[in-house]
Amino acid sequence: MIPTILSPGYFLHYSKEPGEYRHLFCGPHQVPGAECPNCAKPLLRFFSFNTADPRLQALQAIAPQLHLLNCWTCNLVQHPFYYQCLPDGSVRLLQYGIGGTVTDFPYPNYPRHFPGRFASLTPLTPDEQYIIELLNNNDVNYYGNPEMAALAIPTHQFGGEPWFVQSWDCCLQSCPVCHGSMRFFASVCDLCLLPQGFVDDRYVQMIFTLCPVCKVIGSVVHCD
Known about the structure:
Elements: E1 10-15, E2 24-25, E3 44-50, E4 65-70, E5 81-85, E6 91-95, E7 117-123, H1 126-136, H2 146-151, E8 157-158, E9 183-188, E10 204-211, E11 216-223
Antiparallel strand pairs: 1-7, 1-8, 2-3, 2-7, 3-4, 5-6, 5-11, 8-9, 9-10, 10-11
């Protein structure tokens, strides 16, 4: 098993129903400090989690809200990106790629934010987690098995062990504050509420890691 911040993990889905804790998927935001230093616009918010949810009890000491953030229209996404969660709900950017601002990438008329919904957390079953681990270890051939094949496609996941487009070794990050190893936090795939997706590539995957001691979130991007 990989070092993960939460086990078992959860598949993330968007929903019209707010749920008790009102986790959020995309949409505009006003997270203090979450502005792209290259593009001078708010970072894309993929998910925001309310740590008052008892399922996220292990994360309550980090911040009241945990945000998955990045920017697709500049060099920030081309390099490992780190930001720190502060007690008041704001973030502080620590390390990022500089420059490279564009207006027509990943595709023309790229939005400043994506349509928002509430987010729901669906626990991975033990069987699903076991299959994902086998897939990551190349211990199973999923061709001809629809259930396994469905799990071998990037999806939105929080905690647990996700299917990796490349491998966990390619996602390893060290905390820029304490230099310790970071744990798997979440996986974000291309799916959203626009038909083009985030980047119009089903096999692009953004992996988020977390240092719970320093309250630092990191992210890297991989594709098949």
